[in-house]
Each structure stands twice: as structure tokens, then as C-alpha cells.
Amino acid sequence: MAPQLELYDKSKSSYLLKFIGFLQTSFFTLSYLGIPLYLISGTFVFLQHGPMARFPWLYNLPIIISMLVPCIHMPWFTATILRPILDFFEYDFIGETSDEEILNSIFSGKKKKVMFVCQPHGVLSFGGFCSKIAMPPKFYPMPTAVASSLLSTPILKHVIGIWNLTDASSKNLRKVFKRDGTAGCAVLYVGGIAELFRCSLTEERLYLSKRKGFIKIALREGVEIIPAYFFGNTSVLSVATTGPIAALARKTGVTLTYFWGLWGLPLPRWGEKVMYVRGTPLGLPHIPEPTDEDIDKWHKVYCDEVRRIYEKYREKIPHYANKPLIID
């Protein structure tokens, strides 16, 4: 079957739509940097004025409300209101496995659940945002697995939570895979925060060599793995990779470091193209008690597939032609 290409009509794009997409993307980047700073400032306000004063409570009221209100998945909002983000990134999609093939596998007699394992992480996964905006409605129930710290961070959990998030712990993923339909599948960024700090404009570094837990879960649960690569994720923003704040971010799983793009500000770079390439299923067997040899074998298959995808499609993004892939 020929690769599935593009999920939206570029002929309707315009400078106005690109600018709207820039503003929408900037909202997420500014939120990702500003909300943690606001949360920290809330603590200092309480320390300065004391808990008996009125001002600290008013200042921290959004935080308190957010702690009490659960995340809300908003597929109608992301698929319609946020659609200009596709125009801003000049989004392209190449699917070596079509939507129909995946849905047939999930809903047919096989009922084979799927884990879309994505790389690279980037500061924010703009490729992931675009894929969520453009995907068919039948995929809406499928959650994206993230660090539990993000799900418990007030306000930020609501801003990012519109994309349908779930805890990335193995215990929770096992529960997810027991659900029916696409709700029983998941998107996983295997490199996590550690990979975020490998963002570079000159080389593509993936944190993958020591990440094997996703293979173990997939083998145990009889879940298929489909590699997903987001070209452009590491080019839209640059990130400060050293210092005490960066070290804290690695431990907490929340981006607490400075990142920048356009004009040296925490804004997405204009003109950076994003392309999502979805590979083919690895063909994992169901092994209830996989050995280390089983895990190593299929981990290598995954790594080889990621490298194949990168080498085959990187020249479609001009500056990736001379950007080597390094797997740490």
C-alpha cells in the first residue's frame, strides 16, 4: 500500500492563518514557561504576606481552583479552533501504515492494541500537537502518556490536558490497554524529559539506548508498537541544558528551564516545518514473561526502525539533510 499523505488542504493556507497559528503556538510555549514561574511566585507571596492576609489567597486562587478541577479533553477545540497551527508549521504527514489498517487491527477480530512510540520529545511536541489536530475522530479517545508530575501541576495540567493525557507509569498503561477500541491504545514519548535536554539545531539526539521499559510492557500485554517520528520537534525551540534549574526539571519531569526561539524569546521560530512520519508495526509477539533477551531483541528492532525512518525521510526537511542522528 502506498504511504498515506497529508491530512489537511494546504491550498487553503494563508499568511493570516499562519499568524493565527503562530499566536496559538506561542500561547502554549509561554504557558509552559510562565505557569511554573507563577506557581513558584505563589509560594513566595504566601511567605511574604502570611496565610491570614487576603491578597495571597486571591493571588493563588487560580492555583487552588485548578487543583480541584480535573483535566478536560477537548478534541472539538483542538480539531477546529487550533487548526491554524497546521498552517503555521506547514505540517506534512507520511503514514507507511494507513489509518484504515490501524483501525482494522484495533476493531477487527484481532483487537490488537497499539502503542505509538514517538521521538524526539522536544521542548513541546509540536508534531504531536499537529497530529492530534489532524487525526480522524475515531482516534480521539486515544490518550498520550506523560509524566505524572505534569498531570498534577496546577493550571499547566489544564493547558496541556486538552490533548487527552494519561499517566505514563507502567501500572497505568496496563490499565489503559485493557480498555476497548482506540481508548485502549496510547501515545508514548519514550525519551521523556531527558531527551528534551538533547534538543539541538545541529544534531538529532535521542535518549533511547537505556529506555526499554516500553518494550517490556508491549510484550507482556500483547500490544503492537508503531514508531512515530516528528521531524522539526527539536528545531522550533532551543533549550538551556545546564544549571541547577535544568537539573531540577530532570528530577521533577516538568520543564523548569529556559527555552527560546524567535528573537531569543520563548516563541516558536517562524518557518520551521514539522513533519510526522508513522512507520510500520514492529510485529511484536505476546510474551507474558519476556526475558532480557526478548526485550533486547525487540528494542534493537525498534531502534533500527527509528533510524531507517530518519534516514529515509530527513531530506524532505531541508536543514535535516546535514543533521546526523545520534542514539544515546
Short overview:
The chain has helices at residues 15-49, 54-59, 61-68, 75-80, 84-88, 99-107, 126-134, 148-151, 156-161, 170-176, 192-196, 213-221, 244-252, 292-313, and strands at 4-5, 92-95, 114-119, 144-146, 165-167, 186-189, 204-206, 224-231, 238-239, 259-260, 275-278, 325-327.
Spell out the blueprint of helices and strands:
Elements: E1 4-5, H1 15-49, H2 54-59, H3 61-68, H4 75-80, H5 84-88, E2 92-95, H6 99-107, E3 114-119, H7 126-134, E4 144-146, H8 148-151, H9 156-161, E5 165-167, H10 170-176, E6 186-189, H11 192-196, E7 204-206, H12 213-221, E8 224-231, E9 238-239, H13 244-252, E10 259-260, E11 275-278, H14 292-313, E12 325-327
Short key terms for the protein model shown above:
single chain, 328 residues, alpha/beta, two-stranded parallel ribbon, 14 helices
